Give the backbone structure.
Amino acid sequence: MTYDANNIFAKILRGEIPSHKIYEDEHTLAFMDVMPQVDGHCLVVPKSGSRNLLDADPEVLAHVIAVTQKMARAALKAFNADGVQIRQYNETAAGQTVFHLHFHILPVLEGQIIKPHSGKMADHIALAKQAEALRAAL
Ligand code: AMP
């Protein structure tokens, strides 16, 4: 299994396709998931290429998990959530659909039903507003 630099997140990182960006630093980018499972569902990706957790450099993982924590705290605050789920899939059998390492951040309300993974495309105006709320909560 090798890394393919033509995956959609690599294209987002290169600015070849648009995204609703929330946070960026030297090593990582956070942006909205276009098929959110809850309001505020966002993703954190490293700028360096690896398929998933299995082939990632531990130093890269350290940066990504620190930003995931930062985004989880912002998501909890911005969406008045009661908890935050962090999801991460490795290879097709485990549900991975985009082969560039990423962590899903889902702010969850008590009793909330979480929509299916890779379900329906969200309205872009709503995603832009949610990205703005997350940026304000950072
Ligand atoms: P995974 O199954 O963990 O690989 O998840 C990939 C995620 O990327 C899914 O939740 C998709 O909704 C999301 N996704 C796919 N294309 C895009 C895109 N262009 N921008 C933002 N999120 C995307």
